[in-house]
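User: Here's a protein and a ligand (adenosine-5'-diphosphate). What would the complex look like?
Assistant: Let me lay out the input and then the predicted complex.
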Amino acid sequence: MGCWQRLLTFGAVSLRVGGGASVPLGGSRVLVCRRQLSGADSETLKQRRAQIMSRGLPKQKPIEGVKQVIVVASGKGGVGKSTTAVNLALALAANDSSKAVGLLDVDVYGPSIPKMMNLKGNPELSQSNLMRPLLNYGIACMSMGFLVEETAPVVWRGLMVMSAIEKLLRQVDWGQLDYLVVDMPPGTGDVQLSVSQNIPISGAVIVSTPQDIALMDARKGAEMFRKVHVPVLGLVQNMSVFQCPKCKHRTHIFGADGARRLARTLDLDVLGDIPLHLNIRETSDTGQPIVFSQPESDEQVKKPMRRSLLVLDAILREMKKMLSEDKANSRYQFVRRGGYNFSTARLDC
Ligand code: ADP
């Protein structure tokens, strides 16, 4: 090989410069060499490259006081991600009252948690200047919605959003939590990557409706978590079927079993199907999530409620599988809860 020019690009952007110069470009660094590489040179270059790459990745640091983080994500908005996150947090707490559960809403542009958890107001500051979460139904909650006006749109760009995320991750006084459920924004952008790379995550739950347009993005979500080494616990198929309350006819408004097919291609499990149900929508909108407000009020509600808890059961089973390699730190018990016709897994960590 004669005199050559090599362009090494870290990241997607490349820029050609001369004379061995090094140009940082939006977090990427471009090196151009105008000489033949010897074996030693190429080794040095490899090491340098590894150095730069490792510098680029933030170090994961646990959130103070939090044992397990479960993120709830979706490709598309409006598929029921926040609804699932809220009910999952409540179900985790209901499943074992000795567990402390928190809910963190990092959906900076469209925070739903304040409304769904019926919470308003600004967080107080602790003595160490950390924000104290707001509390309802026994769940400690933090959301961008507590920091901005309810009706004001968040018109921020990259850096401001990242600084808000940093605050939500690092400047909240959670006390001691067994589980922190994180409601992610839809998509696979900066926020999702930043959260995934900054804190250790026990597992991700992907929520999707069964329709193709939502599944396409759900797949991207699952792939993103895999790329950043976050275990994907499985898919929740939300709005899977609608049953007419009068004639009982069942309609698959968003298609049938789409999430199940996607799960198969991704080698994942479907953690549960949640039907499209008026009570789920109403209880979310009134800030009385169904897992809390209608545990078994009537036959119509019992079913989706049971399904939500079955989702939890499946999630916990997945976590059990995942953590079983670490037996020294994990202890599990299966319990049957009175009243319901199912068994739930209790995870002690
Ligand atoms: P996302 O977080 O994905 O944007 P949300 O959880 O905010 O979605 O849900 C969007 C809307 O759909 C909300 O009004 C919510 O109450 C409603 N919803 C979600 N899941 C269901 C369901 N299974 N049945 C009925 N309505 C639902």
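Summary: The chain has ten helices and 15 strands.
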